[in-house]
Amino acid sequence: MLKPYLADLHIHTVLSACAEVEMIPPLILKQAERLGLSLIAITDHNACDNVGAVIKAADGTGVHVLPGMELQSKEDVHLLCLFDTLSQCQEWQREVYQALPPLTNREEVFGGQYVVDETGEWMRTEERLLAASAEITLDEVISRVRRLGGLVIPAHVDRPSFSLLANLGFVPEGLEVDGLEVTPRFVPNRGYKQWPQLKHWCLVVNGDAHRLEEIQHRTLLKLSAPLVQEISLALQGLEGRQVVVEWPET
Description:
This protein is of the alpha/beta class. It contains 8 helices and 11 strands. The chain has a 7-stranded mixed sheet with strand order 7-4-3-2-1-10-11, with helices on both faces.
């Protein structure tokens, strides 16, 4: 039986230097519940050390949390990497850390990168610079995440930076992904004129939330369970799975 999951699959925590201090597990879950979300993904930059805390904070709520990461590829393209289990995501983080440059974060310049517990209490500061490109190409990211059992969705493709369309100028032919993410600002009748390629893709809207107010509730997924394989089927429109996006009228 298929169920509707109102989702935002792109949410940052205080582990991302650009996130506000309010992006801690209990407040993220409170906002998700207020918006009626039943499925979220935690996707910090090149890391997943706060995913477990958000999963713990979600215990007893009606919100399912997918482990994830927003990976910055060698081409400076942001990609959502989503998994079913924390162990899968942690294995991916180990691979990504090996491919990141050995640089230290300058908190006074870029902001802090904080690992917290399920209550939002500080546990440690991540000293590694996470806001950097990994030495992993776009195609390698897709194949390696799939090998781990995960799903890749290119992030905010209509954004003028760190996106497929901005950095490459197009969506590569034969790109082995099932769908693309657009920003909440995307309007189909204008967006398809600017980027005709997007007409041929299933699009989802997420918040790329660095503030609580940026969390979105416009993408509805019809799935049998909150699993990445089910999301893949929905993006492809297979076996009755479906993606329904609430688009602005203008």
